[in-house]
Amino acid sequence: MIKRSDLIMILSGEHRRERHRSKxxxxxxxRYKGEVSILITGSHSGLLGRDLPRGMNKECYDMADFLVxxxxxxxxxxxxxxxxxxxxxxxxxxxxIDENETDIELITDRFHMGRSLWCAEAVFGNKxxxxxxxxxxxxxxxxxxxxxxxxxxxxxxxxxIYKVKMGDYDSLNRFMRExxxxxxxxxxxxxxxxxxTFVRIFKNPWIAQRFLPTQKQAYRD
Length: 221
Hints:
221 residues; 45% helix; alpha/beta; single chain; 9 helices
């Protein structure tokens, strides 16, 4: 008998043509004979701006449309549409995951999994178990891994400065509202942070799409 997870969670940022992450969700859903829900999370990249760029659909809805076309019932889906980065994926998904859903299969590409698991721990601590569900996208490199680890290291530094404890949703909520460059409620009074510097460097779409693995994958054909 196949052990079924409590929930399948897919992160946005997939290759728009290949749909590696959505296809992995299809595989797992069929393996569990439809007896599991799928949480799809993510609007777009915050490096494109806080607001959804004109002419672009939210990624979570594009992924949901793909799943519906492949016979996944809408009733089995939950959609988180506010997040614009990996940390936000988990932060805004927090209220959408039931207390008794403790065993979650996390779908993303192999090169992106390390940062994703760290972000999951930052939001949920040890309250949930996130099990990697790697896609068929095996394209990775030392450079991709370095860029992912660098972003994690910058957030770790900010957590240390602003005393954000892993798994403490209240302290993380303050960080997101006051510090994080994508979610700060008052951008004019945004506090300095290592991640803010990173965002300033890669805010230019030309730079981001050439040097950030997730941006190149999701926003360049």
